[in-house]
Amino acid sequence: MLPEGFRSVGGTSFAEFLGDQAPQLLPSARESAGGELAGVTHGTTIVAATFDGGVVMAGDRRATMGNVIAQRDIQKVFPTDEYSCVGIAGTAGIAVEMTRLFQVELEHYEKIEGATLSTDGKANRLATLIRGNLGLAMQGLAVVPLFAAYDIDAACGRIFAFDVTGNKNEERTFHSVGSGSTFARGSLKKLYSESMSEADAVTAVVQSLYDAADDDTATGGPDLARRIFPLVSVITADGYRAWDEAATAEVADRVVAGRMSRPDGPSAPLT
Amino acid sequence: MTAPFYVSPEQLMKDRADFARKGIARGRSVVVLQYADGILLVAENPSRALHKISEIYDRIGFAAVGRYNEFENLRIAGVRLADLRGYSYDRRDVTARGLANAYAQTLGTIFSSGGEKPWEVELFVAEVGEAAEDDRIYRLMYDGSVADVRGHGVMGGQSEQIDAHLTEHYTDGLDLPAALQLAATALGRDTAEPREIKATDLEVAVVDRTRTQPRKFKRLAPEAVESALAG
Predict the structure, then answer these.
(1) CATH topology of domain B27-230
(2) S-S: A216 plus which of A180, B34, B41, B115, CB 3.0-4.6 Å?
(3) Average pLDDT of chain A, as a whole number
């Protein structure tokens, strides 16, 4: 027989249901370890930018464990429903789990209510999940996701950044999180324009990831020998779509070719 | 002190079953059909807000007849069970069989417990597989019994006439418009004089194995239903 809690009336949140029925499965159920942990995998840089008709998000492929490269081809951007995605930086184990929970949370609401959450509603749910992780964040196991969505009502792409306390901050244009984010943001600042096409926006985020990898040791640049390139996701009115890997490779090859003659990348006019 | 009347267990169960069966027969019917690309669920339901057909998980659809509050309660419990299982194991580990078992246990317990009135519901739990042979459709009765459905099934309302029509006209591998037309005609056979059901009064969904998304369940908009019925 289905347990009582399964048949209780009202709840539309999967995370709350999990908290009642199987609290050990929540990301925040980890026991606090006390002190700095060694051997924890970290994800590094995520960038996102809006363009005319949507939003693009991309992440480098490197995961680090201290000074060691833990993984060369990690996926850090995940679709969360038909019109949104999350990019993760910080402690990979917690971030991946939180993203999984967030995915189920959105789908669960949709199935129970028969309607999708608003874009702001989704962002607020994610903020709540991040806030639940504050205790671990204080010990250095922080998760800093970047959330991007296409808002059907407003007919535009939107980007939300968060801090470890769950503070939500909407960015209209572009944003970046993770260890290389300072450099990626500086780069995007010079390359970005609001009227960009989708293809231009993809080139701009690949350029910015190259700049992040250029100056941040933890961010991986295009790996030409192994043919590993950033994973790019695009969300438009037609929904979420992973940008074709061959097409991304082509963009990355062009960016790298340009850097051969000008290692610092394209220059912006002085005035 | 007066002694309570003795009621034999057989009589008690029969009364409870009659009660549940009457409640279920009062409403309109729901039809399930296997077609070329998956499973089609069709209900006569003029309401746009209260659904009889819903998504449970990636490959699993749900249809119900009877009392709304009771099957809605089971639907939500099913979504919770599926999401919890998929989250703690893997999405592939959520199966219609597991879900049907949980429903059977629940309905069976309620039916035979003296304290609660029996629930007046019947359910279809339908799961598409990689090929038509791997499709699984279970029919759950008010008393917790489970039956396998192959090809086509109907529950609720005047289901016998509808079932007779389906048995006569159903063939394997129908395309979607043909399957939908068959379902709509069959649903109209519940009265002595066959009637035509308007497209807007049909609630239609498919669990379609050819969808590229992991979630195979899809509701058909009224316009799509209309054009399929016309074509």
Answers:
(1) Glutamine Phosphoribosylpyrophosphate, subunit 1, domain 1 (3.60.20)
(2) A180
(3) 92
